Amino acid sequence: MTVDELLQPILNTTRPLQLMDSKETIPAWDSLAQINIVAAIEDAVGAELSTAEVLSLKSVDKVVEVARAHGLELTITAS
Amino acid sequence: MHAERIFTLADLTAFAELSGDFNPLHTDPVAARRTQFGECVTHGVFVLMWALDCLQAQSSSKKQWSKISAKFLRPVLTGLKVTATAKEKSASEITVTVSEAGRVLLQCDVIWAESHPGKKESGARNEIPPREIPSQAQIETKATVGESLDLFWPDKLGKHLFPALATTQSLDSLAALLASTRVIGMKVPGEHSVFLSLDISFTPHPEITKPFTYRVMEYRKSSQRLGVAIAGAAGHGMLWALVRPSPIAQPDMANVKQLIPPNRFLGRRVIVIGGSRGLGEIAAKVLAAGGAEVALSYRLGGDDAKKVVLDITASGGKAACFQFDSASPDWEKNLTAHCAQFNHLCYFPTPPIVGGDGSTFNAELFGKFCDVYVAGFVNVAQWLARQNAGQFSVFNASTVYVESPPLRNLEYAAAKAASEACCRWLAGAYPKAHVYAARFPRLNTDQTASFLSAGEHDNLETMLAELSAWLSA
Q1: Is B421 domain-assigned?
Q2: Tell me, what's the ipTM?
Q3: pLDDT tens sequence across B38-70
Q4: Could you report the per-residue pLDDT of A37-72, keeping only the tens digit for each?
Q5: At what angle do helices B44-59 and B9-19 cross, to 10 degrees?
Q6: Which among B107, B225, B355 is the nearest to A39, CB-wise?
Q7: B210 domain-assigned
Q8: Which residue of A has its CA nearest to B103?
């Protein structure tokens, strides 16, 4: 699965997301989007994230890291 | 399919009548202003049913739903034009998207049923559902046993709002969709809820005697999400909702008085514009606890303002409140009637701090902020100058964001920077005046409330430091 497949419907990005993208670079990445990202990851991995993991999901590299910790490999689309 | 619509508060009230979901987030602008969205939000199921109605009407399709999976990604605010489009994934599946200015608000996959059974008798009652009060129970105390719910499809209103759906889908299916929003908005989580998503599978042969039930299946505490299973004559499914944090409560006078010497601000007579909640509420309490006489204004939240006044006066302080809107033609007469003897001003009012799109400058949004932070501020300050022959003192609430505007808040930060420029202008235009602009960090207020984290600074100590700096200068 790619990062864009997981996050683009939530973040409304028109370009491929990169690892350094975050709440500071993506306007739609607010706390409601963060909740929706949690739901997307939990649906994909079939497990509940910890509070620390939920609060950490403010950047693409953290999303990749948390998904990987639950056995889901997310790849970056080549730009 | 292409359709456009602007949802109004009257539309939301009509859908609340139809569905029985009278959650104040949708129908009460005064209560909704204290939520994370700052204003009334259209029911997600309303937006979904409108888009599906447009789809059915424009395609002249008689197809019945087999499954609906919808995600309510962003709030649909009233007054904004939204667009619904559809894209066929296969002969039996279509994706419906509702967006606003390019931002996806709702996405829904519909799988069509293979068979098209004729109309059957419905178990839903042809009447308006009873008006109830949304549940406020804590989530830990919500029943996890199944609860039953009567289904309603008030035919006349239903046909008026969703004419194409009313003639194509089974009434039990429509009533089940309506019940889903009533479950989330009124039952579990109830008042403090945000509907996030639904997945409903519809049966082609409804058993109309089967009761509609809902049951809390899962509470994911780390993300404050609640999973609710539903089942009934029309089918079964799963609903997910966010347990929305309650409005931010500011410290009460008993706590405020512990920090402030009783005569710290004695003799000061201070108008606090926007004092019914948030930073204005804290300022009013701090000033009153220090012995100042306070006249605090509210625009919509009269009950909130009266509670603040009661808290202050019950603890021995002096306070009164009055309704004030800087955009009203009577604003000057109103101030003169309530604050003629005052010579200090604290200025805190704000429109909902909504963000721009982060990539372009939204002049209209900037203008809305400036109406309050710039024009409203200067008008009130100059009124105070006229009342006091140019000898007055002003406290303007600004923000650290003027130094480094966040991606989504350029328009807000720019308007606050403009209000600071007005402070400097006032100081030059009125040499006997004292004008102070406080740059606040992000504090815990309704306006800054997030679904996941709070501000990092102590509201009371921060406000005390700024007011002391203002009045000791």
Answers
A1: yes
A2: 0.92
A3: 899 999 999 999 999 999 999 877 889 999 999
A4: 999 999 999 999 999 999 999 999 999 999 999 999
A5: 90
A6: B225
A7: no
A8: A12
